[in-house]
Amino acid sequence: MTRRQLHCFLFILLSLGTISSIAHAQSAQYSCKYFFHLHQAADCVEALFSEDPVHLVFGSVPPGNGFALGAVWEKPTHFVSPLAPEVVPNMRDQTVFPSPADPDTGQKKDRGGYKSLFIPRLGAAVSTNGSWYVTGTGDWLPGIYTDGVRTISPLRPGLRPRTKTCHAFSSLCTESVLAIHFEGTHRVARTINFYGIGPGSPPIKTTFRLDETYGGIQARLPVTDAFTLVAGIEGRSPDLPFESQATSVFTNFPPASLPGLSSGPLYMHSNVGFTTQARHVSEAITRETDTPNEQLPLLKHRTAISARGEFAYHWYSDRSSGNASFEQLTADGDLAIELGAVTQRYVISTSVSGFLPRTFYRILEHYCGGPPADPRTVINKEADARARDEEKKKEAEERKKNKVLFEIKHDDYCDFGTLNFRSHLVTSGVSTGNVIPFYMLPTVVGQDIDSRISLRGFDNYRFRGADATFVQAEYTLPIYDPFGVLVFYDAGNTGNSLGDLSFAHVRQDAGIGINVRILRMAVAQAYFAGGRGGGLHPGFNFVKQF
Length: 546
Hints:
Elements: H1 3-16, H2 28-31, H3 40-48, E1 54-58, E2 68-74, E3 77-80, E4 115-127, E5 132-141, E6 146-152, E7 162-169, E8 172-174, E9 179-194, E10 206-224, E11 227-239, H4 249-252, E12 267-283, E13 299-318, E14 326-343, E15 347-348, H5 355-367, E16 368-369, H6 381-401, E17 407-408, E18 413-429, E19 443-444, E20 463-464, E21 467-480, E22 483-495, E23 507-518, E24 521-531, E25 535-542
Antiparallel strand pairs: 1-2, 2-4, 3-4, 4-5, 5-9, 6-7, 7-8, 9-10, 10-11, 11-12, 12-13, 13-14, 14-18, 15-17, 16-18, 18-21, 19-20, 21-22, 22-23, 23-24, 24-25
């Protein structure tokens, strides 16, 4: 990363620094109008990057192509599903597409049918080097489900089984529902780095431009709460426009030595697989006491563990020449451990003396607060923003009047950071006589073309091969919204066979950095990473948002 790029990225981080990560439904109409009022600058900027139906986004253009700014439009639409076989009373939708009014009573009749949801999105972004990205997607949740109830195991042996509501379809009864994703995208990445193929490629950088059009359908069907089937099909048409500059791959490699350099195949890509997911929350039970003067401990632990695995098999069928077909097996894992606590008693600064105790409670107040509001439950965003503004003003005036430095409330949630352990494996295979175009090979180190982070101690796209793997361990801790600190360790490599991925060939790095969140979701990070053979490497990443 050049010094100019680093300065630009730090400027963007400082701009994002005005964004609060508290999950409220912001109103740009109100907050930006009163930008110089108390707290409204933060709410205004957050609204610009989160408010529906249109909001701004960073990123989404392949890394290495400068800074990108874009916009997304989305408008969830409820309608009555034509697939509904029989109407259940509490699933009727009387407000959408009602029947004509009854000529006798003048009232509109219930048209019937199950509620469905369709979420269309249009997005576009352009970067500082002229790369761009435009996409249209839609997510359809068909109304084929009814309200169901199922029996689950008791909290502990000896108690009665519990019941839980769910979405019922045929013999299935799950928390989530069938989702069908449609997508059509065209992107132009003017600069993709290439260092050769295989784990031993030299650090000599060449570049190529990639124009790519793709689109298709992906379906996800939950069989149980922990197991979801995935299948999809898409068409994909990559193209490498010829470039004659000194660093171009066309100048540095003869077509015969680099598969895919002379042609851009038209692919039919299909995939099948499954995902597994589980979540467990462990929270200590509040101890009851009959002693009037006995105080409970200030905090009780609360830890949430989320595990997710995704496995898929992909077929890339070359529909043009037929000699660039290949198959891939991918596996991903993510284990997240949310470290937290719950406060058990009320503490205010006027009842605490001493520098160290007061410092401790002020730090604790920063990490503890009530659960964030759900933006989906806010009906009038402007009224909500106005009410929160007045509430914050009154709270600030009250604390100033009573000389309150901190206030720890009962039953507040405390966020002490998250531990993440991630893994990724991809292995490719080709039939005799076939080759995989070099730009379709997976990459490890830095970021790949879809902004997935792997080994941060090396340049983007540094190693490329038919097989690739990496593992990561990362700890993130919120410091001052929206900023947090992160500490990480990465290990992995690419190869031309699974044997190249052995521990003897692994590359490693470690480092520290900062991340930025909007509505409690990470959107960017900047870091310094050091790895054997890579030196101290500054880097940044914008999460791909569409």
